[in-house]
Amino acid sequence: MQFTLIATALMAFAASAVSASPVSNEARMILDVWAPKIISPNATTVWAEGQQYNVTWDTSDAPVNISNGAAVRLGKDKVLTNTTLASGFDLRQGWVTITCPSDVIPGDDYSIILFGDSGDQSEQFTITETLESVLGF
Ligand SMILES: *[C@@H]1O[C@H](CO)[C@@H](O)[C@H](O)[C@H]1NC(C)=O
Ligand SMILES: *[C@@H]1O[C@H](CO)[C@@H](O)[C@H](O)[C@H]1NC(C)=O
Ligand SMILES: *[C@@H]1O[C@H](CO)[C@@H](O)[C@H](O)[C@H]1NC(C)=O
Ligand SMILES: *[C@@H]1O[C@H](CO)[C@@H](O)[C@H](O)[C@H]1NC(C)=O
Predict the structure, then answer these.
(1) Which residues, if any, are the signal sequence (predicted)?
(2) What CATH number did the domain enclosing 42 receive?
(3) How far apart are CA 95 and CA 31, in angstroms?
(4) What global pTM score does this model have?
(5) Which ligand is nearest to the CA of 39?
(6) In a domain, 93, yes or no
(7) Who has the most CB within 10 Å: 22, 28, 66, 67?
């Protein structure tokens, strides 16, 4: 997934580089993408369906200006799913509270992708079923 995103960013950069010379501010800004390190979830994390958790990331190296429109999407088996867990928060905050979806198949190959200027994927973690999610409470 990250390869695809990086490739897209590079193609966008290449496209802007040919259309503007010398290298424009726009092209430099594309190179300034910030991919924060995701702290949680990580390989030791277990989420129970229907429960609330914080997704957290390191903001110590955050640039002064970062674009809006941050979002957290769920990934499974290294593939981005259509499940958006959170959106419209400030990336500089370093955390966002999400609710683990109740309608996913339990597994140990989940990840989250934090979107800001770029897409950043977490380690794979586990989602487990709860009695409540099985019974549909
Ligand atoms: C991994 O995530 C857990 C929460 O799921 C957190 O408590 C722990 O500090 C994280 N580990 C590292 C090394 O950041
Ligand atoms: C998420 O983090 C915030 C700020 O540290 C805290 O107030 C809140 O209780 C946390 N929520 C969960 C579900 O851990
Ligand atoms: C951040 O953005 C503001 C407003 O667009 C601009 O005036 C400022 O120079 C920018 N700072 C940096 C470090 O890019
Ligand atoms: C995700 O959304 C796209 C566009 O709406 C759709 O074509 C695709 O089938 C969806 N994938 C899944 C797994 O639901």
Answers:
(1) 1-20
(2) 2.60.40.10
(3) 24
(4) 0.76
(5) 1
(6) yes
(7) 66
